[in-house]
Amino acid sequence: MRDPHIAADEISYEGSEIRKWIDAGKHNSPMKNESLTHDVLIRNTALRRAIEDWQKQQLQLQLQQASSSGAGDDDRSH
């Protein structure tokens, strides 16, 4: 998920996907199958920040793992 939005059912969805759902004339929640009382979508900035933080942490872990495995290779070559 890159751009989470909260729909009337109080669930976060990928913004572009829930917009397509609503624009296709679907007025029920994709998750709860209850009627959506309105089509206003609210950007979920807290979830977006959490996703971005998690992505940064994952990248840092990958870089650390890559540098750790590379350091061991240098020691064995001597």
Overview of the structural elements:
With 78 residues, the protein is mainly alpha-helical. It has one domain: Herpes Virus-1. The chain is 53% helix and 10% strand. It is built from two helices and three strands; from the N terminus they run ββαβα. The chain has a three-stranded antiparallel sheet. β1 and β2 (12-14) form a beta hairpin. The model has no long low-confidence stretch (mean pLDDT 92). One of its GO terms (molecular function) is ubiquitin-protein transferase activity. Residues 1-61 form the U-box domain. It comes from Panicum miliaceum. InterPro entries: Ubox_domain (IPR003613), WD-SAM-U-box (IPR052085), Znf_RING/FYVE/PHD (IPR013083).
Q: What keywords describe this structure?
A:
78 residues, mainly alpha, Herpes Virus-1, three-stranded antiparallel beta sheet, 2 helices, 3 strands, 10% strand, elongated, Znf_RING/FYVE/PHD, Ubox_domain, WD-SAM-U-box, transferase, U-box domain-containing protein 55
